[in-house]
Amino acid sequence: MFVITLHYVAPLDHLDDQMGEHMKFLQKNYRANIFLTSGRQVPRTGGIILARARSKEELVAIMKEDPFCRLGLAEFTVTEFLNSQMHPAFKEMMKEFE
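Predicted structure:
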């Protein structure tokens, strides 16, 4: 499991101009069963994505396709973690992705 952290490096109006394309990018990766949940940080300085992938390198390649990152509007980090405990409902949902 991975946590992707985006940090905005451009003014918010520049990000807002690309929001439609960013949303298409997110939806593509939800359909591919890679992204599990995502959203803005509070305050709005970046975003968080919880993801599944075969490797960290795969996610790095995927994130380079994000319009925010590709256009230099945001930087990202990918953190891998071993999921050792989870809510029973989440555990049941994760079975769908195996």
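Summary: The first helix runs from residue 12 to 17.
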